[in-house]
Structures are given as C-alpha cells and as structure tokens.
Amino acid sequence: MREKPVYLFNGFLGCGKTTFIMDTLSTPDFGAGEKTLLLLCEEGEVEYDTSKFCDEVHIVRIEEESDLTEARLNGIASRYKFDRVLVEYNGMWMTDTLFQSMPRNWIIAQEMTFFDANTFLLYNQNMRQLVFNKMQTAELVVFNRCTHGFDKMAFHREVRVANRRSTILYEYGPYDIERDEIEDPLPFDKEAARFTVKDEDYAEWYRDINEKQDDYEGKVITVKGRVAKTPELEANKFAFGRHVMTCCVEDIQFCGLIAVSTEAESFKNGEWVAVTAKVKNVPERAYGEVGPVLYCQSVKRCDPADPEVATFY
After folding, report:
1. Is 19 exposed, middle or buried (0-12, 13-18, 19+ CB in 10 A)?
2. How far is CA 236 from its chain centroid?
3. pLDDT for 158 beyond 70
4. What are phi and psi of 251, to 5 degrees?
C-alpha cells in the first residue's frame, strides 16, 4: 500500500492548533491538488472555514480517545480517498494512543506541538506527564502569545529535557517569530581525552553518548553507576548504568551501557561501582547494532550516587 504522510498538530485546547492548520490548508504551496484527510480529536475554539481551503479536505471527528483504534482508522481510510493526513490532536490524550492505532501505511511526516506561553509553566507544573508527552517526539515546538523581553530559559529548559532535537519558536504576533538560539553546553568537557562525569550529570551524559556516539570514540571516562547482570551476557560483560527519571516517577527506567571487564564476575548484581573505561563503538549483541561499549580500565566499589536516581536539568 502507498504510504500516507501524517502531519500531527499537538497541544492543549486554545493553543492555536486550529488557526495554524487553517493557514496551512489555505496556502497553495502546501497542496498541489492533493486530497487531505483531517482528523479532529477535539472541538477547538476556532471554527474551520472550509471555503478557504485550496484543496479537497475530508473532515472526520474522533470524539473519544477509546474511539482511536486501528480498526476505526482503517475504516475511515477505506471510506475516503486522500493523499495525506492532518491530525488536530486532543491535548488530554497521550500521543502513544495515536501511534499505536495508525494503519501500517500511515507514516508520521512531521509532528508539531503548540503551547500558549501564558499557561505553559502552570500546565507543566500540574500536568507534567501530558506536557512532557507533547514535547517528547515533536520536531517543532511553538510557544505563541509571547511578549517581548520575557525570560525564555524556563521554556527552553523544559523542551530540552524532553527533546534535544526540537526546533523551538517563540511567536509574538503575526509574522513576528523568533527562533530559539540558546546554546546547551554540556556540564562536562567531552572534547578532552579523559574526563569525569559527576553524579548529577549522568542523565545528560547518557543521552549525549547515545545521540552522538562518534564524539566519544576512544575517550576515557570515569563515571559512577550500578552493575546489572543477565544470563545473556558473556562472563566478561555486565550492564553498567543508573535509573533515570525523564518526566515523572512512573517513567523511571534503568539506562545503561555494556561494560567489558576481566573482573566482571567478581561484582554482584546491583552493586555501585566507579568505572574508568575507554569507549569503543562496536557491534554489540545486546544492542542489536553498533553502539558505545565501555572497555574498563578499572572497576571499584563505591558509595551510591547522589542522587541515586538521575534526572535531567
């Protein structure tokens, strides 16, 4: 089956999704005679004026999150002829519901998340998991209704905790948009041949070494973590890492790398150790692909990290 690109517009009620979609569908450059399926998963404050659309648009409403199933979407797909899908998503629904329900030939082409700058920090405080979910996989995060001179750092920081690759835009008014250019220096010097990762910097280090593996090739790193053993690993290997919380308590998970050491068998499951190791990017069965492996120069028992559960800034 031919793939159908899906454009996902995410955010809470009143954040500007409908207006943006209206402007998009009213722009001749976005179409070229293509037919669009528009899924509305919430009733926005702005009504759609279909007379302004440049191309043919089929609008289908999804009233409840429980209605968002693969069977329902396949039924819709068989009823209409369309070349692409636009989704105005409900801010109170988790995006995984959509991802798990999409027909196999529906492919996310772009995911955009919108927030009202006046309510973002309050929502983030009271509905942290939902806010985090909206930013986690978004390619573009837009804060609208901004005022010139406001402190962008709190907004920037929350997006970067969820997703370091998102483009961030601040919208002050029509045609008055600023791109976020705040740099995110790492709390350790990965340009050095040898460096130590502090306890509080583990989450940042773990994310960076997985996203930019080539930057760490041949570097010697000292870092504190726990030993995790499984029968699947060879006798000279163990999983080394820490529990990391990215959003809230419910999403705490063990995040680690494979370590190679002649002393591997002498350490017990769960022990805290300080490892000094050279990083090599090699094929590793536990990863199922090439990835960073720690070739230990020393492994020493130590006190637990402080804090024991790593978090992002």
Report:
1. middle
2. 34
3. yes
4. -105, 15
| Inter-axis angle of helices 153-162 and 128-136, nearest 10 | 70
How many angstroms separate the CA atoms of 67 and 212, rounded?
A: 39
Q: How confident is the model at residue 280 (pLDDT cuts 50, 70, 90)?
A: very high
pLDDT band at 164 (very low <50, low <70, confident <90, very high): confident
How far is residue 67 from each of residues 61, 221, 279, measured CA to CA in Å? 10, 50, 47
C-alpha distances (whole Å) from 270 to each of 205, 209, 240, 252, 254 are: 21, 22, 10, 16, 11
Where do the DSSP E strands lie in 145-246?
167-173, 176-179, 194-196, 220-228, 237-245
User: How many other β-carbons are positioned within 10 Å of the β-carbon of residue 238?
Assistant: 29
Q: What is the rounded average pLDDT for all residues in the chain?
A: 93
**CA 90, CA 62: separation in Å to the nearest integer?**
9
Contact indicator for 309, 255 with CB cutoff of 8 Å: no
- 0.85 exceeded by pTM: no
Whether the predicted pLDDT of 87 surpasses 70: yes
At 100 the pLDDT is 95
Tell me: cis bond preceding 103? Omega within 30 of 0 counts. no
- Compute the distance between CA of residue 209 and CA of residue 223 in angstroms, rounded to an integer: 13
Residue 249 CA, chain-centre distance (Å), reads 17
Q: Which of 80, 100, 85 is nearest to 40 (CA)?
A: 85
H helix runs in 102-181, sequence order: 120-126, 128-136, 153-162
Query: What number is the average pLDDT over the span 53-65?
Result: 92
Residue 313 has pLDDT above 90, yes or no: no
